[in-house]
UniProtKB/TrEMBL annotation, chain A:
Name this polypeptide is given: Simple sugar transport system ATP-binding protein
Subcellular location, record wording: Cell membrane
Keyword list, A-Z: ATP-binding, Cell membrane, Membrane, Nucleotide-binding, Repeat, Sugar transport, Translocase, Transport
Bilayer topology: Peripheral membrane protein
Residue span(s) of domain ABC transporter: 6-237, 253-498
Any Pfam family the entry gives: ABC_tran
Keyword Translocase applies: yes
Automatic annotation (TrEMBL), chain B:
Organism: Sulfitobacter undariae
GO cellular component: plasma membrane
Stretch forming the signal peptide: none
Membrane-traversing stretches: 6-25, 37-58, 64-84, 96-115, 135-161, 193-214, 220-238, 245-265, 271-288
Record protein name field: Simple sugar transport system permease protein
Keyword flag Cell membrane: yes
């Protein structure tokens, strides 16, 4: 092996109460595509933030090309040749593409000259992008291109990508990988963070696995199975959810020509959505984020009531009914955003249990709240769904993402829904908790409930759905049996590559 | 009623004078809000500027020193707001309201010995022969240097926000402070500087009332101009040039109602006195159709760890 481009030696970083990284060492050679694997909270983000100068290590050294490397801030890291594409895009919605790119550059040229450079680079790497467009109007894939081009314009020697594919269609992923391979062939090293193991096997040369802040192993992804890598990540054997495969029952929920205007300037209107949902079946709805998922959930939950005749629950027209009335009838929902939407962050678990459980669990008697019953209800959720928490009195905010997710999903499942609509049930949840949540959803279906699972994780949808449909630009495709559907077909249903083209290699 | 008693030249010249305090306060607040901070303490910072400027001008005999002191006074008070909201992460709305109440009270205390005193007068700029142009000369070219400075400031802020790197970074911080932090911009430092700029501008605006427009010191003499400035920023959709338009509308209406009062129109004085406030808000509400113009992080507290 030649001299490494970047080498990290026993980096340690502690936050109050948690050691994010402990004695982490790794080496990256020029042109190497190196995967960083690990569960949520394993310390991947902290590690790359140290390389990018956002966080200072407590101890340990970094070396770049054999020289000591200790960036005090991101601009120093950028000058040294490190570029980073963030997981949650660090973009400014109200500004143009060119302005966004200028903000992330040292010594940005005048906007006119910069626009010309953007066009040139986007042409070279097959990432078409108009410099004058406002970022708020772009799709997720296009936003990512803004970030990538921002990095490429600075000729990085090391490109860090934090979960880059979570918002892309399969076709967009394919094109992204072509771009990355071209970069790697030109000598740019890539540090690739993901927990999508299949992607890592296709793209990466080497992998380092982190668990609880420590390096637990290195491997060559092409020679390792995804299952082995997953078990290295979680440190235990994984259980695959099982399903019973049964006949669907009567139609319980039907949508006929559901339309709703966009709730705000950056939202999506629902256009003519029709479907029939039968008892005991799981309908998986895929699609790139921002194509109407939140709006569909709001229309089903009753947060945004719709005109008469569009939503029927067991034959009854429930379009104009609000959430409480729908809950009373047995239509329950769990939104994507845990903090602030599914749960009130500063309220205790008991209070949060009361918030959605009052009607169906009889926690509200003649206008008075039955707190002992709510506490018992919250405790039963915690027991049944293995929520790790000191008790029912703690604030929802203090739970980790995965634990809170188990709580908010469990809270609805425990109320015996007849129809359960859930958006991103395992978003940001570690593999074992995700498996438990999927199993709970499948059990619910087995007991006769009908489920709509909206998700951006295609593997998840394939695992639990009976039928599959995709949202694209506020329209829902015709649902089709999930068995035997290919990734390419799903990608086309999701809207294809959104005008991307293959890199001109 | 005798409308002929209104002198059109003085009437239009008064437009500019009445609008200037509002222009200063509003353009300062516009910069603050562009960085994502909502400072409701404009009224308090104005009145602090009014008394600081008045006191220093009287003691030193120099109105320009007075305006400098007003800027320092306004900025000093705004530092209290910056400390509360940027260091202690206090709620911006509550802190701003507290700032206004504190400013009104503290200025009354400082100004006790200045009631009834006459401040030194700031001379008008001499434009030489240009000032003799009929109509245009007496209306536009018969004012003091601070008034013209206000116009230059608005144009400068507009150009800075639109064309400069500083302006781009400033807007970025206001648009999405988490993203700006991730790119390595010093969110708190930029916001603190913007808050101080806003305070200095509000101070100068206040001093313009006590030193030029009225000119004397009375408690609470800013009379809600700070609140109008806040409304003006919102209804001007955070655009400096539209803000200028709104300020002149307000200045014109103030001038009109004063003249109507003097001419003895048979409408109760209270209605006339409130009319500029009502009319300005109504017109600006109608103008401000693009509600999406607000900075994305406006009023949200930034904490680097999240």
């Amino acid at each position: 092996m030649t001299q490494p481009l970047l080498s990290l030696t026993s980096l340690t970083k502690a936050y109050p109460g948690v050691i994010a990284n402990s004695d982490v060492s790794l080496k990256i050679a020029p042109g190497e595509v190196h995967a960083l694997l690990g569960e949520n909270g394993a310390g991947k983000s902290t590690l790359v933030k140290m390389i990018y100068g956002l966080v200072k290590p407590d101890s340990g050294q970094m070396q770049m090309n054999g020289q000591p490397f200790a960036p005090a801030e991101p601009s120093a890291a950028r000058t040294a040749g490190v570029g980073m594409v963030f997981q949650h895009f660090s973009l400014f919605d109200a500004m143009s593409v060119a302005e966004n790119i200028a903000l992330g550059m040292e010594n940005a040229p005048k906007l006119g000259a910069l626009s010309a450079q953007i066009s040139a680079v986007s042409e070279e790497y097959g990432l078409p992008l108009s410099p004058d467009r406002i970022v708020g109007d772009l799709s997720a894939g296009e936003r990512q291109r803004v970030e990538i081009i921002r990095c490429l314009l600075q000729n990085p020697k090391l490109l860090i990508m934090d979960e880059p594919t979570s918002v892309l269609t399969p076709q967009e992923v394919e094109i992204l990988f072509k771009t990355l391979r071209k970069l790697s062939a030109e000598g740019t090293a890539i540090l690739y963070i993901s927990h999508k193991l299949e992607e890592i096997r296709t793209l990466c040369d080497t992998a380092t696995v982190l668990r609880l802040g420590k390096v637990v192993g290195h491997c060559t992804p092409r020679e390792t199975t995804t299952r082995e890598m997953a078990e290295l990540m979680v440190g235990k054997l994984l259980q695959t959810p099982t399903r019973a495969g049964q006949q669907a029952g009567d139609v319980v929920l039907s949508l006929t020509g559901l339309r709703a205007p966009a709730p705000n300037a950056f939202g999506m209107a629902l256009k003519d959505i029709s479907l029939e949902l039968r008892a005991g079946e799981v309908l998986g709805i895929g699609g790139v984020a921002g194509n109407g998922q939140d709006e569909l959930l709001a229309a089903l939950s009753g947060e945004r009531p719709v005109p008469r005749g569009m939503v029927h629950f067991k034959g009854e027209d429930i379009g104009p009914l609000g959430p409480t009335a729908r809950r009373e009838r047995g239509l329950l929902t769990a939104p994507e955003e845990r903090m602030g939407h599914a749960a009130a962050p500063d309220m205790s678990l008991t209070e949060n249990a009361m918030l959605t459980g009052a009607v169906r669990e009889g926690l509200d008697k003649g206008g008075f709240l039955d707190w002992p019953a709510a506490t018992r209800f919250a405790q039963s959720i915690i027991d049944k769904f293995d929520v790790r928490t000191p008790g029912t009195h703690v604030a929802a905010r203090s739970l980790s993402g995965g634990n809170l997710q188990k709580f908010v999903i469990g809270r609805e499942v425990m109320q015996r829904p007849e129809v359960f609509v859930v958006n991103q049930p395992t978003w940001g949840v570690d593999a074992s908790a995700a498996a438990a949540i999927r199993q709970a959803l499948l059990d619910l279906a087995k007991n006769g409930a009908a489920l709509i699972v909206i998700s951006q994780d295609l593997d998840e949808l394939m695992e639990i759905s009976d039928r599959f449909a995709a949202l694209n630009e506020g329209r829902l495709s015709e649902p089709r049996p999930a068995q035997g559907i290919t990734v390419e077909e799903i990608g086309l249903l999701m809207g294809g590559a959104h005008g991307m083209e293959v890199a001109h290699v | 009623m005798d409308l002929s008693s209104i002198n059109p030249i003085f009437f239009f010249a008064g437009f500019f004078v009445a609008a200037t305090p509002l222009i200063f306060a509003a353009v300062g607040e516009l910069v603050v809000e562009k960085t994502g901070v909502l400072n409701l303490g404009v009224e308090g910072m104005m009145i602090m500027g009014a008394i600081c400027g008045f006191a220093v001008a009287v003691e030193s005999g120099s109105p320009l020193l007075g305006f400098l002191a007003a800027a320092v006074g306004g900025a000093a008070l705004s530092l209290l707001f910056a400390f509360l909201t940027q260091v202690m992460l206090a709620n911006q709305v509550a802190s701003g309201l507290a700032l206004t109440l504190f400013g009104l009270g503290f200025s009354a205390l400082l100004g006790q010995s200045y009631v009834g005193v006459k401040p030194p007068r700031l001379p008008d700029v001499n434009f030489g022969i240009l000032g003799d142009i009929p109509v245009f000369g007496p209306i536009v070219l018969s004012h003091d240097i601070i008034l013209y400075l206000g116009l230059v400031l608005v144009v400068a802020v507009w150009a800075l926000l639109k064309y400069s790197r500083v302006g781009l970074v400033l807007r970025a911080v206001g648009e999405n402070h988490d993203a700006a932090h991730a790119l390595g911009f010093k969110v708190k430092r930029i916001r603190t500087l913007a808050i101080m700029f806003g305070g200095a501008c509000a101070g100068v605006g206040g001093a313009y009332i006590s030193l030029i427009r009225v000119p004397q010191w009375t408690e609470g003499m800013t009379a809600g101009i700070g609140w109008i400035a806040l409304a003006l920023v919102v209804f001007a959709s955070w655009k400096p040039l539209r803000l200028l338009l709104g300020a002149y509308l307000f200045g014109g209406l103030v001038q009109l109602q004063l003249n109507l009062q003097a001419a003895g129109v048979a409408i109760p004085v209270e209605y006339l006195a409130m009319s500029p406030y009502v009319m300005t808000i109504v017109v600006l509400v109608l103008l401000s159709r693009d509600k999406g113009a607000a900075p994305g992080s406006l009023g949200r507290i930034f904490h680097a760890s999240s």
